[in-house]
Amino acid sequence: MRKSLFVFLGAMAFLVSCFSKPPEQTTGEEQEWKSLFNGTNLEGWIPKISHHEPGINYGHTFRVTEGKIQVNYGDYDAFDEQFGHLFYHQPFSSYHLKLEYRFTDEWRDDAPGYAFRNSGVMFHAQNPRSMLKDQDWPIAIEYQMLAEQEKGVPRPTGNVCTPGTHISYQGEVYKDHCLNSSSNTYAPDRWVLAELIVHCDSLITHVINGDTVLHYTRPHVGGGVVTGYDPAVKKDGQPLTGGYIALQSEGHGVEFRNIRIKELD
Question: What is the pTM (predicted TM-score) of this model?
Fold first, then answer.
């Protein structure tokens, strides 16, 4: 009990330290939802695909189809570890993000096996312009999205992964790369509502189809997994108080729609 109280108070202290507006201003719950995707084109989004410079949408990987952002590999001759991320151009710190996703039938069998029915949203990510040409992942926290792989075998979604970063979980620094949520397992073709509630570098909550499935705190730079980065960007131990949001492509086709955000004070 005392440990739980300590963790809670620590999280609240970090939360207070991230406030950037005086308390008399509009509260987070009164802010309006903003759409990050106009349903027509990729205006406001920046692609960064490994082995290509920022801004190059190699192979038309990210495209708009019937009001959805789609990850598509139809113009690829080979995957060649060309992991991709589509960044929204504006950074955020404290916010509530909502989007829907589902997987398509398209799978690059020359992609890594772990990428099967696997995608995600990167957040508190580095500026895409600071990523080097051959960098595989941004230094970020990942809201991981998975779908059923084998009938009847649990495969939760809404997990957290940490490329070049660490988090604190249940009061301790969590150094494994991924941490599973408590979510159900969903069929790949089902639309799933994913929500992410971020309070600066304090409390972070994952929600799937209305159910809270994961809590953790204190995201910060550290750890491995990311390769090809500029060492000047990776300052281990530095708190992640904000950053960019990016949709992921890592070998399996996926679609995103209804991408909305509400900033929180």
Answer: 0.89
On the question of pLDDT at 153 being above 90, the answer is yes
Question: What is the 3-state secondary structure of 215-227?
Answer: EEEEEEECCCCCC
**pLDDT (mean) for 224-241:** 96
In 10 A of CB 184, how many CB atoms?
16
Range of the domain at 220: 2-21+33-263
Does residue 149 surpass a pLDDT of 90?
yes
Mean pLDDT score, 166-184 = 96
Q: Give the number of C-alpha atoms closer than 13 A to the C-alpha of residue 189, restricted to the C-beta side.
A: 2
Q: Is residue 103 part of a domain?
A: yes
Number of domains in the chain: 1
Q: Which residues contact 114 (CB under 8 A, 6 or more apart)?
A: none
Specify the amino acid at residue 156: P
Phi and psi torsions of 2, nearest 5°: -65, -40
Report the CATH number that the domain containing residue 219 is assigned in CATH: 2.60.120.560
Length reported for the chain: 265
The answer for 13, left when phi > 0, alpha when psi is -120 to 50, beta otherwise, is alpha
In a domain, 28, yes or no: no
pLDDT of residue 108: 97
Beta bridge partners of 262: 96
Among 251, 219, 250, 247, residue whose Cα is nearest residue 97: 247
Q: What is the pLDDT of residue 33?
A: 97
Mean pLDDT of the chain: 91
